[in-house]
Amino acid sequence: MPSTANIGWFADITLADRLKVGGKGASLGELARAGIAVPPGFVVTTRGFEQVLAELEKELPVRARVEALSLQDLRGIRLLSEELRTRLKGAPLPKDVHADIVAAHAALCRSDPNRPLAVRSSATAEDSEEASFAGLQDTYLWVKGVEAVLEYVRWCWASLYSVPSISYRRKDRIPEDGIAIAVVVQKMVDARSAGVMFTRSPLTGDRSVITIESAWGLGSAVVSGEVTPDRFVIGKITDQISGREISDKRRQDVPAERGGITQIETPEELRHAPSISDDEIKAVAEIGRKVERHYGKPQDIEWAIDRGGEIFLLQSRPETVWSGKDKAPIAKPAENPVQHVMKIFGGRR
Amino acid sequence: MSTTVQTKCFPLPSSLKVLPGTERAQAAYPYYMQFSKEDDERFWFYNSMHFPEPMSVFDVTTAEAAYCALGAANTRVHSLPTTLGIDYRIINGRIYIGGNAVTDPAEIARRTNEFQQRAFYYYEHWEELFAQWKQKMLALIRSAEALPKLSLPEFEPLEHVRAGRGIASNHYLLDTYQKTLEGYFRMWHHHFEFLLLGYGAYLTFFDFCKKAFPEISDQTVARMVAGMEAEIFRPDDELRRLAKCAIQLGVDDLFRNGITPAEIMPSLKRSEAGRKWLEELAVSREPWFNINVGDGFYHYHRSWNDDLSMPFASLPGYIANVKAGERIERPVEKLMSERKQLINDYRELLNSDQERAAYDQMIQLAHRVFPYVEGHKFYCEHWYTNLFFNKIREFGTLLTEHGFFPEAEDVFHLTHYEVEAAIIDLMTSWSNGSPPRGPARWTRIVNERKAAIAEWARHETPPALGPVPDIIDDPAIVMLWGITRENLDSWLAAGEKPDSNEIKGFAASSGVVDGIARVVMTVDEIDRLRRGDILVCHVTNPSWAPVFQKIAAAVSDIGGSMSHAAIVAREFGLPAVVGTGTATQKIKDGQRIRVDGGRGVVTILQ
Questions:
Q1: What range does the domain containing B518 cover?
Q2: Model pTM greater than 0.95?
Q3: Of B189, B359, B459, B548, which sits with the fewest C-beta atoms within 10 Å of its C-beta?
Q4: Is B475–A344 a contact, with Cβ atoms under 8 angstroms apart?
């Protein structure tokens, strides 16, 4: 099935499509096109969301009322959030959007209509260099069957008006007009281990090291902070593992039998064992290097290793904390190069 | 100012007692090395890096000569802005040192002005001054080699008489001794002529890298700067060459594991091929076997030339490697291209072109100064120091012949003043026909001092003494000893938690390896190392490089990430942790240990 106005396959998407497919969708498409392994999937474009929102605006304004909210008005935010989420979840999908999702779902799942999928929000404002919007909108894992997908697409739309989402935008006074949401639907990785990777040290901003955090099971437990992950530091240039902290990983997220995910106790013998081998660390880091090279700047990345040992990227967004710190150069060239030694000999106090 | 925070403090010098029964041996050190009450006000640290064992009264000449020259270079020649020289004291044979920081801003400014006229000139004319240095150093070595053999004939040789020399042989003992001592003090001035400036330029680049890449390892910076052709690598290169020669000449079968030089020499002399190989050996020996098995600061750090067992012990391994088809030459070109790649890769990660331009300037300066930093050791600490101690040894032999003490090595238990006194005693005796006075005096004293050294060696000494300074801003202390405020805090803390199976040190060369520890205290023991063992030793030294072919990892008590063994370990791709302070004490021979060279941690696995 080819891409349509409502559906974009990863292979047809680039970063330039962000307004149509959101930050996450654009990034996944860009990665896939750059030859990085991402779980296959498609994006429900913002067109469907815009159509539904236009219908809702006819009944009662949406964007103008959100924009009028004050960050301090917690009660106002909560009430409007409840109202908008209920309306978005209840609104029927436009016929063509419905049909395109059903067709794309069938194309993605082929012979197994209950194949587990991830349904992930992809807002147009997220994962930009200025702001990550990380984790504000909903993600649904291990979703089985087209009916559930159709349902969760609307839930993702609704999450654009969750209390945290609205508050985040009000805090930064982001105009509502440009805000829309697409939804990523992709195959679920049955992760043996998963985690995040920073191609710039989150602790020191060092660009020459890659930090990898990893835990057993699905990455959701790491991203949500419910599990303290193992932590590794590997030289971007030297490829040497210079940091290695193995944590006690008491719990892990795994797929629930009837769909969705559940948390279980980690088997005793795995709790203190590294959740990723040295070879895998190097392979994950190598992907990190490739992605950073592709984008030309440091990235925050979510990754997973499936039970067959294959590595997938689930997300990559530009690093925002350190790049935002506009630092003065550490040193400038000196007219007489010898002058530099005064830093050592001239007294440091 | 309120002083609610208690100043952190190591034991005061005055609280450190001379071990009972060793008081006279302690008193033998010159008065200017003894602690006094005023020294309680200052911070001192034990220079275990250079002087890891109790020093005999003669060997402290190394400290005297080195600190005289270091201080002169810093204080008077280059005028380092924030520091003067180093004070040193000795107790229980352990040398403690303290820096003389300059803190008055006006004085720093005045010294800075001088520094920029002096040190900058050196940087700007580095290559020509260094070329000149080598000539000076070689001339000094030649003049030490040219000193006459000692002799006290019964009658003055007839040809001296007929030539009207007029000065009798006994005078030349004093003359030669004084020239020997003078040469050693002079050599140390050469040693420090460039050293601090060299380290400073290196540290400038190092400091930049640590700011730009806060998590970069010391060893990575070291790899970017290290030269590959330094003369300190030559002795090992020569061994590799001799291994190939042995195969080409067909005498390789003679070099069996465990064979001693005394056993193999006669067999080599018997055949044409063997004699050819011995000619090649002679070529290598001068000068490259003038490398000693320690850092050269103790009289018993003998050179390969003095004792061929070290180089010979390594030949069977090298020969086996060549036969197995391995390339045993140091892969200089590969190392150079790796260095270049490393420099470029880090350069690309920098923030701006401005930073890149500054980086280029700093790495270029570091590369310019580094041949000296790496190269001086062979000439100073090895070649010249061997000549010096061997000449003193000749005096020891002469004095032994005249009954002053039982063994030639005993001479090293006299101070250099006392050696001169003994020489004058002997000169007098030879001249007037009376027996020398020394034999009745020295044997007892020598025995007493030997016993004291043995006793001191049995006891540990505090790593530092006196109040901890708030900031350590002395480039000499930071550069040469790697001492920072953080180190001192960890030393203070180390006293509080004695039992741990982890030993920390400098991360010298990356990689993680488990293996059997071989605690090797002297070069005589290197035969015990089996392939795959982990070398645990006190000092790692370039002359030990040949053992790296068979070990799996290296651990040492002393040495920094720029120590030559650290460099050699990186070249061999072996994990190494250096500067642990206590590895040879904590690790028992035969224990299973893990070396994590990337983190600088050694774990005793039992």
A1: 500-604
A2: no
A3: B459
A4: yes
